[in-house]
Amino acid sequence: MKKILITGALGQIGSELVIKMRKIYGMNNVVATDIRMGDDIQLGPFEIVDVTDPAAIYDVAKKHNVDTFIHLAALLSATAEAKPLLAWNINMGGLVNALEVARELNCKFFTPSSIGAFGPSTPKINTPQNTIQRPTTMYGVNKVSGELLCDYYFNKFGVDTRGLRFPGLISYMTPPGGGTTDYSVEIFYEAIKNKAYTSYIDKGTYMDMMYMPDALNAIVDLMEADPTKLINRNAYNVTAMSFEPEQIASEIKQHIPEFKIAYKVDPVRQAIAESWPESIDPSAAKREWGFKATFDLPKMTEDMLSKLAVTC
User: Fold this and answer.
1) Domain span at residue 161?
2) Which residues contact 8 (CB under 8 A, 6 or more apart)?
3) What is d(CA 247, CA 203) in angstroms, rounded to the nearest whole number?
């Protein structure tokens, strides 16, 4: 990778990925874009781009002579369910526009998928890399369609497409952004601020999760991987841990003994969560490009609380 374009740079993954990649590849070699102005990431190249405008994407990519395209612009699961037509227009329209630019300019291409690509009929425990995918949400439909579309651009046009099925991502730098797994971020903020949290996800609801540093490393490692070894190139299962609300609350209590958790279940997000796997199998990612995660629940909890104690 020499010159990288990142759309959705102010989103959940984008802002931290921009910072990380600029440290690795150089400040001026990572171009951040979004539909509004950012703050810290404007210290390097930054462009306002609407991903539903294909000409705007092309012009910026051509202007900066990019050879790698990281497409992150999307509506997340809960927001997509509330605004399904907007989600289709942004998530799918934006993706095909980005893929077309990657094809025209011969760019290496990455876009994330999600465990939301699975559905109620998917095996819920140790979900295989290749299995039935029949999601029941607009976000899930977008993600399955995106995986297939990236496969098509690789097979039809030779675009070097790559992707990861991310679980819930937890970060001390990026506030929640409309995802079903956001409770796992909110709970840390509320633990520091109020020593209590009311969860919209019910107790006993297991979902796969990953700490953001592991997610960022996974993107970089996949993009640097030997393309000849990539078989499941657009939809690698990756995960670091699986837990339910009571378990994360228990870990927080190890550091904040007075912390309390209560429940007020959101039926929309609860239904989404129950349609997803409880744990997934990342063995293909480990085998094909050496994926590994370094943070488990106790280690992540300690790091999150220490970082938020300073920033909150």
Assistant:
1) 4-167+212-237
2) 14, 33, 34, 51, 71, 72, 73, 74
3) 9
Of the candidates 25, 58, 139, 189, the residue annotated as catalytic is 139
3-class secondary structure, 301: helix
Band (pLDDT 50/70/90 cuts) for residue 42 is: low
Same domain, yes or no: 227 and 265: no
Are 175 and 119 contained in the same domain? no
Alpha carbon 166 to chain centroid distance? Answer: 5
172 is catalytic: no
What are 169's strand-pairing partners? Answer: 210
| Position 287 in a domain | no
Structure tokens at 61: 């990519």
Mean pLDDT of the chain: 94
Mean pLDDT computed over 262-289: 94
- Whether residue 133 sits in one domain with residue 76: yes
Backbone angles phi, psi at 256, to 5 degrees: -130, 85
Q: Which of 26, 43, 32 lies closest to 10, judged by CA?
A: 32
This prediction has a pTM of: 0.94
203: how many CB neighbours lie within 10 A of its CB? Answer: 13
Report the domain count for the chain. 2
pLDDT over 80 (residue 174): no
Phi-psi region of 158 (alpha: psi -120 to 50; beta: other; left: phi over 0): left
The SS3 of residue 282 is: coil
- The per-residue DSSP string of 90-143 comes to IIIIHHHHHHHHHHHHT-EEE--EEGGG--TTS--SSB-SS------SHHHHHH
> For 187-204, what is each residue's pLDDT tens digit?
999 999 999 999 999 999
Residue 59 lies in a domain: yes
Give the strand pairing for 164-166 and 113-114.
parallel
DSSP 8-state assignment for residue 3: S
Note whether residue 289 is domain-resident: no
DSSP H helical segments within the chain, as ranges? 14-25, 54-63, 77-82, 84-87, 94-105, 138-157, 183-193, 212-224, 245-253, 267-274, 283-289, 297-311
- Using alpha carbons only, what angle is made at residue 186 by residues 180 and 191, rounded to the nearest 5 degrees? 150
